[in-house]
Amino acid sequence: MSDFATRLIAGARRLGPLCVGIDPHPGKIPDLFGGDTPDGLAAWGEAVVAAAADRVTVVKPQVGLFERHGPDGMRALQRVCKASKEAGLLVITDAKRGDIGSTAKGYALAYLSPTAPFPSDAVTVNPYMGLDTLEPFLEQAEANGKGVVVLARTSNPGSSDFQARDLEGAPLYARVVEALAPAIERLKGAEGWSSLMLVAGATGPDEARHLRQLAENALFLVPGYGAQGGGAADALAGFKRAGNRLEGGVVNASRSVTFPDGADSAATRTEWTAIVEAAIDEAQADLSKHAGSTSAILA
Ligand SMILES: O=c1ccn([C@@H]2O[C@H](COP(=O)(O)O)[C@@H](O)[C@H]2O)c(=O)[nH]1
């Protein structure tokens, strides 16, 4: 099996850089699917997967929004991960884990081992407990062709509270990424891209450019496009030129493509599907246009 980074970049080259986020927000799951219940989450998530298949290369289920329903919610997450794999999609499970090395292994096995109950191609991790806490994830990634997505510069309004703080002449997020350099190199795959990805929010295009200078070979997972206000040019700021295109990661959209205008009042699942597929196509086209345009490259 090829490494995660090579699978991801090949898919993004073929279909475009959009990643569809599967975020079952409270009160937002249409009654058509069973509403805000574990079965509703699973049925809605599987419908999102079906809409995303062949339109994008990767989906990103958000764990907390399943976990709020307890064990049944986690079973719904499991169904969504499995349905995604069966549909040929890559899965970045957004769990934002982080723990001392000995117990972080539990999380790494849950998402990245060959027998993981939540089959994923990559999982998001929080690096702020230190490099040793990432090691179990790196080991699983290396052994099984998986990826590890490390929070670098996040998209939320409070991202500067700590991440932008000066640490000996550079922002903390930059120091984190500098420290990740050996791990980025260690997970470098066949295409030259590393399976250690960095989160680089679309809400901070300058920081994304800075991150690219620091980590030339790291793919970026870019949240913040769409519902959080980031546009395509912002989202692609940290990508790099590859011939006449920009590449270097994937751009997540969750609410803007899974709860678009009109989807909540769809009378049938067929109608809902058409609305969501159109929203996915629109976002993919928007990003692909910018990724292929000279003005975006030179911006
Ligand atoms: O810095 C980060 C890291 C992760 N996220 C996650 O991405 C999606 C964004 O959802 P939208 O509806 O497109 O805003 C969500 O799952 C977040 O937990 C992020 O937004 N920022």
Short overview:
This protein is α/β, with parallel strands linked by helices and about 300 residues long. The protein has helices spanning about 5-15, 40-50, 65, 70-85, 100-110, 135-145, 160-165, 170-180, 180-185, 205-215, 230-235, 255-260, 270-290, 295-299, and strands at about 20, 60, 90-95, 120-125, 145-155, 165, 170, 195-200, 220, 240, 245, 250-255.
Description:
The chain is 46% helix and 18% strand. It is of the alpha/beta class and 299 residues long. It has one domain (4-291): Alpha-Beta Barrel (TIM Barrel). Strands 1-2-3-4-5-8-9-12 form an eight-stranded parallel beta barrel, surrounded by eight helices. It has a two-stranded antiparallel sheet with strand order 6-7. Strands 10-11 form a two-stranded antiparallel ribbon. The ligand O=c1ccn([C@@H]2O[C@H](COP(=O)(O)O)[C@@H](O)[C@H]2O)c(=O)[nH]1 binds at residues 21, 23, 62, 94, 154-156, 199, 201, 223-224, 226-228, 252-256. Its EC number is 4.1.1.23. Belongs to the OMP decarboxylase family. Type 2 subfamily. The active site is at residue 96. One of its GO terms (biological process) is 'de novo' UMP biosynthetic process.
